[in-house]
Amino acid sequence: MESRLTSKHLLAIKDISAEDINLIFTTTDTFKDVINRPIKKVPSLRDITIANIFFENSTRTKLSFELAEKRLSADVINFSASSSSVSKGESLIDTVNNILAMKVDMIVMRHPRPGAAKFLSSHVSAKIINAGDGTHEHPTQGLLDAYSIREKYGNVRGMKVVIVGDILHSRVALSNIFCLQKLGAEVMVCGPTTLIPKYIDSLGVRVEHNLDEALAWCDVANMLRIQMERQDIRYFPSLREYTMLYGLDRKRLEKVGKKITIMHPGPINRGIEITSDVADSGQSIILDQVENGVAVRMAVLYLLAGQQAGEEK
């Protein structure tokens, strides 16, 4: 098997191959072993400097990348746009070039504008990992979600996965759709008509507006949060009504009549899209997703750094 990714960057799942995804997953298997050892640090990236540049607030993704980088012994620079010269009008390229002048090899970037990571990749020499660009993609989340399904079932091919909720504003949904389809899964989206994008038919996914029907169909349900911060108009009458129609609670889950796996990319709005008794139940793999996120990001960083798979880990 080829031991390098075919791309210099990780900008979008849409741009990488199923072979790339499977290489990331087999490398993740190795790093899962590493992070479960008593000594969790390896010297794989000890000569690499990585800058985490976040133009949007993030807790989980930023912490996960930082932990992955430190587990690989990289030197890490954290940059927050809100407290930087960006707030004084400095351009994205100026900001990044100043950071690159400090001899940074890789950049992990989150930005509110779709396409920002791709734009940056064509203007700087560093390797870029997209940690979320607006409502476009969040590739490492798509990878860790698909990896978690693979870990649970042994394979992704043939699995029926429903993504429930705010599809319109979700970069997680798009990366999940592309990743799952490349690996041979069937994908359905479920939510109110106002939160299903008009282009969804072109992606070859099923659309269902009745959550009970979607749950009866699926093996895995990935529950998305309502992204109020990205909504400039009302897409449904109230959160209470949304929860009645699309919230997942124990009663609704028991009505399905079969054991389905519950996922959530976080952060969870408990009591809105999912109740605590479901999120914390034995059918949930939400905490597995969190653990797998570190290992998947270690794999991506390692492979993009140009290391040969099979070297000392």
Descriptive tags:
single chain; 313 residues; alpha/beta; Rossmann fold; 2 domains; five-stranded parallel beta sheet; four-stranded parallel beta sheet; 11 helices; globular; disordered C terminus
Describe the structure.
Helix 1 (18-35) crosses helix 11 (286-304) and helix 2 (60-71) crosses helix 11. This protein has helices at residues 18-35, 60-71, 92-100, 116-121, 139-153, 171-182, 211-217, 239-246, 250-255, 276-279, 286-304; strands at residues 49-54, 75-80, 106-111, 127-133, 160-164, 186-190, 206-208, 220-223, 261-263. The protein has two domains: 13-138 and 291-304, Aspartate/ornithine carbamoyltransferase (Rossmann fold), CATH 3.40.50; 139-286, Rossmann fold, CATH 3.40.50. By secondary structure, the chain is of the alpha/beta class. 37% of the residues lie in helices and 14% in strands. It contains eleven helices and nine strands. Mean pLDDT is 90; it is low at 229-233 and 307-313. Strand 3 (106-111), helix 4 (116-121) and strand 4 (127-133) form a beta-alpha-beta unit.
Care to give the gist of this entry?
The protein has helices at about 20-35, 60-70, 90-100, 115-120, 140-155, 170-180, 210-215, 240-245, 250-255, 275-280, 285-305; strands spanning about 50-55, 75-80, 105-110, 125-135, 160-165, 185-190, 205-210, 220-225, 260-265. The chain is α/β, with parallel strands linked by helices. It has 2 domains: about 15-140 and about 290-305, Aspartate/ornithine carbamoyltransferase (Rossmann fold, 3-Layer(aba) Sandwich); about 140-285, Aspartate/ornithine carbamoyltransferase (Rossmann fold, 3-Layer(aba) Sandwich).
